[in-house]
Amino acid sequence: MDWQEQLAQVPARHAASFTRLGDGFLTRLPPEPLPAPHWVAYSEPCAQRLGLPPDWRSEEALQVLSGNALWEGMDPWASVYSGHQFGVWAGQLGDGRALHLGELLHEGQRWEVQLKGAGRTPYSRRGDGRAVLRSSIREFLCSEAMAALGIPTTRALCITGSPQGVRRETVETAAVVTRVAPSFLRFGHLEHFAHHGQHEALRQLMAHVLSHHAPECLDAPVPPVAFLEKVARQTAELLAAWQCVGFCHGVMNTDNMSLLGLTLDYGPFGFLDGFDPGHVCNHSDHQGRYAYARQPQVAFWNLHALAQALMPLIGGDEEAVAELLGEALEPYRQVFQQAMLTRMRAKLGLARAEPEDQALVDDWLRLLALHRTDYTIAHRRLSRWPAMAEPDGGPLRDLFLDRERFDLWALRYRERLTREASVDAERLPRMQAVNPAVVLRNHLAETAIRQAQAGDFNEIERLLKVLQRPFDEPVQASDADFPPDWASHLEVSCSS
């Protein structure tokens, strides 16, 4: 069976398909055709992960993945969900510009295949259901970059484009991203049915989630509570991964939070250049709710919203139920703090744990924040800094205006390395395996976007290859260099 047949038939063969929940959870509808589609970019590692053959990019596939055709047996659908946006209940939302085509099964892993930008759905509200080339390139590149960094994420198989105009701030051209994940279920899916008092539907959805995404929770005394704790732990690990690589999501609404602990919905994201805990990457976030340093606490807030949605599933006194769910959330803080410290120890090249490590890490981050030191470059230079170096510190020290303050921290760091008899030649490869040389900075994405808007997609392909090996020194040194001056004027918003 080729991959087209598999994609069309898996939902009919496997009870795991979300469509089996029925029409109260989704709407079946075809995508809207996109005129004159063409290939823009594709990810071969993603294709291999899905088990696709080398010749998968056929003309027929182009039409299907642009929304112009369906393979036999396909039954596309969009799901309904709700959520809190910027801390306020937003009511019914849903897949406003996403359509699920079906599922692929490869090596025991089931993957949902979804088109983003395939036209209006009943959940588009006043939107056109389209995606533009600019935002599609950003999502495609960042999905695959995060995967290469080892951070849980949805994946992106390809982008197709079209000359069709789409109005945002200006008129741009349309594009469709094919993205895949074990599931696109969000906190907002459960919130929707809880908020609207549809408790039987909520129970059905919870049963689906437990059966297919958390079967180990079924044997727990109270499965929804066990599931909440699982989500809390996964989310804590995810947030620690984000923070340690300097990633800002930009729009951490509950409808953008994955029940599987994946990075979901790439919009106004950004990676830190200069280290600024208060950095807000989303130009639409006027209150700074989703600033870099606030992300861990926002995730915890979102988990409380999820806990609230699960309350109708648990019988008993309301106060006792709330206490039970609150206890399930307690591991979040500890898991996050431990995951952060473990990751930061690795970034500093520390091979064993000592009680003073937290203070050493905190003071390093304060030092970076004081000077808005480039986060990625500082860690990469630190990996090359000899343990027994003289106080001049070389290229690393040059990053800091307050040399005396750097020298004081560096002395503590050298002493710490000496206590564990750290060997430079052994520590360097360990540190460079966790401190990327290249991340998807806004100016790198912008350069690829501008060339693509002029009809040249080569920079997307080149940059993708670099991002798929983020821990290697790039051939083009500028990929790992400081951002140019013009990068400081770039702005991204919810339309990005």
UniProtKB/TrEMBL annotation:
Task performed by this protein: Nucleotidyltransferase involved in the post-translational modification of proteins. It can catalyze the addition of adenosine monophosphate (AMP) or uridine monophosphate (UMP) to a protein, resulting in modifications known as AMPylation and UMPylation.
GO MF assignments: nucleotidyltransferase activity
Lineage of origin: Bacteria, Pseudomonadati, Pseudomonadota, Betaproteobacteria, Burkholderiales
InterPro entries the record matches: SelO (IPR003846)
Record's keyword terms, sorted: ATP-binding, Magnesium, Manganese, Metal-binding, Nucleotide-binding, Nucleotidyltransferase, Transferase
Enzyme Commission code(s) on record: 2.7.7.-, 2.7.7.108
Catalytic activity: L-threonyl-[protein] + ATP = 3-O-(5'-adenylyl)-L-threonyl-[protein] + diphosphate; L-seryl-[protein] + ATP = 3-O-(5'-adenylyl)-L-seryl-[protein] + diphosphate; L-seryl-[protein] + UTP = O-(5'-uridylyl)-L-seryl-[protein] + diphosphate; L-tyrosyl-[protein] + UTP = O-(5'-uridylyl)-L-tyrosyl-[protein] + diphosphate
Cofactor requirements of the protein: Mg(2+); Mn(2+)
The protein, known as: Protein nucleotidyltransferase YdiU
Protein family (similarity comment): Belongs to the SELO family.
Catalytic machinery residues: 255
